[in-house]
Amino acid sequence: MELTARRPAVGLAVLFTVALTTITTETLPMGLLPQMSDGLGASQDRIGWLVGGYSLVIIVITMPLATMTARLDRRRLLVLIMGLFAVGNALLAIAPNYPTALLARLVTASGHGVLWSAMAGYAASLVTRDKAGRAVAVVFAGNSAALTAGVPLGTLLGQAAGWRTGFAVLSGLSALLLVAARILLPEQSASPAPSGLRGALRLPSVRIVTAATALVMLGQFTLHTYLVPYLGDADQSGGATTVALFVFGAAGILGVWAAGLLADRGTGRYLLVTLGLHAAAIAVLPATGGAVTVAVIAVWGLAYAALPTLLQTFALKTAPHAVAAASTLFIIAFNLGITAGSTLGGQTLRLLGPGPLPVAAALPVLAAAATIAVGLHRARKPPRPAHARQTGAATGDPAAARQRA
């Protein structure tokens, strides 16, 4: 049985579960640091590199691997990558030492970026063009579901039955998704042009989205990575910290749902509003306390969760003939921002303490908003009429001549 155009919900459900599984795989070590440290005989900061190193592999390998697999059918690519996740998670579950665990993470990370670079375009292809934003939102809802439910449940399972059990379950789920994708997803050919990435970078809209994505993630993870120590400094109640973290994730699900509704109605303006809301929520955190802090974090979580969908949809709509390349650049910028944000936040925390983290985080988000605003302004600017360019050249007008060039 194969998915048909009349049943896109089945395919989107598969892609949602793939998203949930891959993001849970990427981030689960963060919830099991002590257990994995004891089990592998490595310090917690080295275990942390099972996440940081994962992100670096995505940055380095995604672009060349996406070019190499450009002619591969998207369904076959997804099946192969879920096979990598099944093998990598199984290897991690039985890893006797840290080097083996690191190798297992490299196996899964090698396919992660390529998978996500193809997911948005694949999801959009399952529905009509006017519903593409909602389809992309379904995929990114798996991201929020992983952070809100997948990682907490995996952490609880790891604490109760051993950390290896969590990765064994992820390995089994990856294998099931491999079979489901082969049966339920349709074939879809990718763009055959191996130079698509270079061509995409020549498009102003793609450059703008790539830069804005990196800036958003830089700001987000400057604070998000160290949210627990920041909240511990701002509010000594451990219970409030736990509630705030849960509210951030739960609000994220609402944010993805809202982004799906808005993405097809005018992505640019909603993207600007959401960026402003994101920056404002982070910036006012130092002036809040108690329940107000939790409320502001809810707004922050809602805005942040909506941004990947809005950014990705903006890229797809402004570069419809470079979907795969734009998605590849998006995922590279996404992970580059995560790595840079974690580094900036760590240095800020070490040198200045947790207090300045919100300010350091809000500035890159404001820069992302300015980048999108400039891009939208240029897009609205009408092109100079051809007869005016010719007149300028004929009269020797230097400004017109430069415009003509």
UniProtKB/TrEMBL annotation:
Gene3D superfamilies (UniProt xref): MFS general substrate transporter like domains (1.20.1250.20)
Region entry Disordered, spans: 380-405
Domain of life: Bacteria
InterPro entries documented for this protein: MFS, MFS_dom, MFS_Efflux_Transporters, MFS_trans_sf
Keyword Transmembrane attached: yes
Membrane-related topology note: Multi-pass membrane protein
Keywords assigned by UniProt, alphabetized: Cell membrane, Membrane, Transmembrane, Transmembrane helix
Subcellular localization: Cell membrane
Alphabetical list of Pfam families matching this protein: MFS_1
Domain Major facilitator superfamily (MFS) profile residues, every copy: 10-379
Record-annotated membrane-spanning stretches: 49-70, 77-96, 102-123, 135-157, 163-185, 206-223, 243-263, 270-288, 294-311, 323-345, 357-376
Main location: membrane
Keyword hit for Transmembrane helix: yes
Protein name stated in the entry: MFS transporter
Organism listed in the record: Nonomuraea spiralis
